[in-house]
Amino acid sequence: RDPPCGQKKGRAADPSPGFERRNPAFLGGTRGAWGRGGACGRGNPKPARFPTPPCVAMAPALLLIPAALASFILAFGTGVEFVRFTSLRPLLGGIPEPGGPDARQGWLAAVQDRSILVPLAWDLGLLLLFVGQHSLMATETVKAWMSRYFGVLQRSLYVACTALALQLVMRYWEPVPRGPVLWEARAEPWATWVPLLCFVLHVISWLLIFSILLVFDYAELMGLKQVYYHVLGLGEPLALKSPRALRLFSHLRHPVCVELLTVLWVVPTLGTDRLLLALLLTLYLGLAHGLDQQDLRYLRAQLQRKLHLLSRPQEGEAE
């Protein structure tokens, strides 16, 4: 057989040892960069498989960033709407006048009134939908399935689905203005001071909630840190945490339980629909917690460690 054009008979020219390893386009012998037969050989030209440039390899990873940011924005907007739903509306919604079209009914009359029972049943269905989604997607089986098909977007997808479920609850929630109330601050001076006190407690509770979320690694909770670490090739963020911390996180699904209970129950008027919301979410928050003595010892040790670190500058100044 004739050698490829431009090459003499005999041993194939090899510019230097290891040339084929350093240049994937050179496939050895009579195979050049265009496949079988060389650049002037017979057959269909076939481009060689060059190494993927870093920018191309980074492109799929960079596509994950908009998805994670969209999930974060949706969750943030849902959180703002949840503040309005649980705090601003009950505190600033007003009280129906006695004898008006929205006059309250007694408990016995409410049990037989379809205009009260139907909205309550609808609200109960919305709450069960949210609780079911939030619990089902938190199981190990579902998380493993989501991690298999969505990778590092597993947490972002969970956050987005939770935000959408909560949006459904808030958007389609049916108030029951004619339902009975468990308590109501109507007479003066309680009608002025009780809403003000509730407002102050709600502000403090929400500030504590936001502070605790920042302490508990807000970026990891929202799924941003997983994508950020994946793009930079740093691995899984949870792998950097100690086994005792991971055990605590698995048992403490809602680190803002007390503050949320304050927001749910401390209102000037606790109507029927608000009572349903507070009762069901209180049960859910209580059942989701599973702290034991080992978790409490870990928390106590971490608290003592933090206090020791904070007291070091003062000890240095005293010396």
Automatic annotation (TrEMBL):
Any stretches that span the bilayer, and where are they?
A: 55-76, 116-136, 157-173, 193-216
The record's keywords, sorted A to Z, are:
Membrane, Transmembrane, Transmembrane helix
- Which InterPro entries does the annotation name? Nurim-like (IPR033580)
Q: Return the GO cellular component terms, semicolon-separated.
A: nuclear inner membrane
What does the UniProt entry say about where the protein is found? Nucleus inner membrane
Spell out the residue ranges making up region: Disordered. Answer: 1-30
Main subcellular location? nucleus
Classify the protein's membrane topology as the record does: Multi-pass membrane protein
Family according to the record = Belongs to the nurim family.
Q: What is this protein called?
A: Nurim
Q: Which organism is it from?
A: Gulo gulo
